[in-house]
User: What shape does this take?
Amino acid sequence: MNTISPSAPLATGRWRPSLQWLQGRLQVGRGLVASVPTLWLGLFFLIPFAVVLKISLAETAIAVPPYSALFDWDGAVANLSLNLGNYRFLFEDSLYLDAYLNSIKVAAISTLITLIVAYPMAFMIARSSPGRRVVLLSLVILPFWTSFLLRVYAWMGFLKKNGIINDLLLSLGIIDQPLTMLQTDFAVYLGIIYTYLPFMILPLYSTLEKLDDSLLEAAEDLGCRPLQRFWLVIVPLSLPGIVAGCLLVFIPAVGEFVIPALLGSSDTLMIGRVLWDEFFLNRDWPMASAVAILMLFFLVVPIMLLRNAQGRKEEAA
Amino acid sequence: MMRNPGYMKASAWLGFIFLYAPIVSLIVYSFNESKLVTVWGGFSFKWYAELLQNDQIIDAAMVSLRVAVISATLAVVLGTLAGFCLSRFGRFRGRLALSGMITAPLVMPEVITGLSLLLLFVALEGMFGWPAGRGTTTVIIAHTTFCMAYVAVIVQSRLASLDESLEEAAMDLGAHPSSLFFLVTLPLIAPALISGWLLSFTLSLDDLVIASFVSGPGNSTLPMVIFSKVRLGVTPEINALATLMILVVALGVLAAAWQMRRQARRAPAA
Amino acid sequence: MQLSEQIQNPVPAQAPVDVKAPWHRSDTEPFVRIENVSKHFGDFVAVDNISLDIYQSELFCLLGGSGSGKSTLLRMLAGFETPTSGRILIDGVDISSIPAWKRPVNMMFQSYALFPHLSVADNVAFGLKRDGVPRGEVKQRVAEMLEMVQLGHLGRRKPHQLSGGQRQRAALARALIKRPKLLLLDEPLGALDKKLREETQFELINIQENLGVTFMVVTHDQEEAMTLSTRIGVMNHGEIVQVGEPHDLYEYPQNRFVAEFVGSVNLFEGQVIEDETDFVRIHSPEAEAVFFINHGISCAPGQKVWAAVRPEKIRISREQPQDADNCIEGTIDEVAYMGSLSVFRVLLPCGKQIRVTKPNMARRFDERLNYRDRVFLSWTGDSCVVLTS
Assistant: This one.
């Protein structure tokens, strides 16, 4: 990009800028161009966290907005009152810690099951003929573009007491009492697996598609049975796709609100839902902020570090 | 080409059934005369008619569409700038800040993004009187912020796969850096911009959590209305709405797939 | 040359026979037998009823262009494709129904197919571990094998950290370590640059001779095939058109395809006008000449035949040679000086172009033939081959 050769000014008779002038202009221009997205993100992404941090240190108040001011100014003395009570409460009331741990558990288990469901699908798509591959890929992508909320909603009709699954099982005589499936943890797992399945299939597919057939043949040639070939060659080689897919499922699943709200019971504890309830039901903005800060440090920061490490590893390879 | 083992195929097809059964059921029951979802009362367009008369849903859909179009467009502009700076400017001041912030929204739980933006808007209003109350503007700002991250990632990966010598050739032929961007780079990354716009549009149209935090009264988006309705149970009107939305998306995906297939056929077999 | 035999039995040109070679002896059993093997992909016939015997410790080359079926045949030996019909026997055992992972056959892939997630040593050890060889023995054999291919110091590297030539040797080591009865090599030198290729050819021959493993090489490069192999099978359209030692193929091609595919050749179309047991005369209207060839042929009277003569067998001179068997006249159209030799393109009056190569024996300049010189081309009766198909 930086290889601009100084052109001979008389070649065309037109004035051409000198190299130094051009590079100077370029630096200024670049700075201006880059500052637009940087400022936007700084204002609407970075500063908000400072605000959240600030409010998490305030007290609830019956006011608009419903929290106390950190600074107060009474004539001559400035008072700074930091309230760590919200954070103490986070660790004293087991609700928050339970919700945090449970979110991680639910997200981890559903990520694993999603991987197991997605792998054969991605494998089959990657191994089919090009024409068929486009069709199958579109079939995976289609739900991905349709409303997430409506797809979760569709499961309500499936899972409820007089829903489709219970009707089917009853009419087949497999059960004689309708099963309670909606508003259970089972429904939450199912919902997460269902909605995030395409997120797992696509990265898996893109690594499996690049898998060189001759590597599989080499494994067979050197004495691998099909199952050994799978574990010793296919899985290690698709590891980048597995990691990418798992992150894509795990990250949003941990903070998930809609799925536990629609499919789970009131005691399906998930941290995203706790934050929502704290804010909308209890109107305790400082507490909600404290929960957000907790999630940020114990969830988002580790995930970002993990992602960066993964990115560097891929760059090195 | 290795053949797929049978058990692999069978489980893959089960996966596709799993993916589509709920969607198919939504479509089928949207034509159900009966209000009880599982009792088939005969074929009818009744719920579609009711849907079109439901002002609350129609209004919310209008709000959502407007928000989605504006924020997708803004996100494409800002995201393209960010992606371009990161992949073509080498080292520049603020690079670290930009590259750190651009991917962060991708891993941020929606509840945090929503809460933090709301608190920012409240604080800004308290200090400067802007934005006055919450409404479509605040939703647009919020959606633009998290959508531009996706656009930047798409644009960056497209630029990474692009042959830089094309741009060098343009410069060699006398294109000024600014005209270079509009004459060469932009047309080359146009497909990425289109998919970035479509993705942003869909994400915006689909978002419930962030919009719930930052929108004001009387400015409910479509997902907010749907959520408040389905929370109370299954309603056939929503089935009809879902069917219409799926139809639109399916047509779009079908067109894209047809295009891809044509290109795949036209390309010489490798 | 057994001239008497030829006189009694007029056959197309025959190579001198090395009676010690196993393929000329009736008492040696072939090691690999390919019996009437065909492979169809839908309507497409990739391999068409091929039968081929390969002997112990041979380095056999399958030579052919792309789509000639050579790779399909190789893949059937490896077990990646099942023959539509026919049998393949190795050391007397029919392997047709044995899956690839149980066959005593290993393959070196064109792309090398080294596992990118494993180190070089782990790649080489891969096959032994699958066979459940004890750990200590695996380690020792891997070390020996890496030493043999001169990669002893690079065992811990990943494949992407190796140069092209090192990867090629790692792939060879991995394929050899299981001591296969038959080693298949798919374009083993194809990915190397010219200089490295020449060095590696001889390395490959050395390794093969030291280990005594039977090699089967697929290549499209005739020079590579000539240098490497004990025998070559030339393939075209799924069939083997000629099998023979490199020398046979070059000097005694049996048909136009082999003559043109292996080396370059000048072909004159014509008709036999005099057919004796020990010589023939062919009239070629293109060259406006009658050619004398001092071996007999078997063909129908009046049949169209081709007289084939290699560029280096033709003598080129300004003066008309005396008592030459064959002589034609032409004009030099183009000269390419290539250092060790010069290549001339000579235009005959009829417009046909003849390729002649001449070693540059003298350093002097004055003798050099030039563009537009009128020249005489001559060759002896025994440097020409008559082809009937």
Notes: The domain at 57-223 of chain B is CATH 1.10.3720.10 (MetI-like fold). Chains B and C do not touch (no CB pair under 8 Å). The two ends of chain B are 13 Å apart (CA to CA).
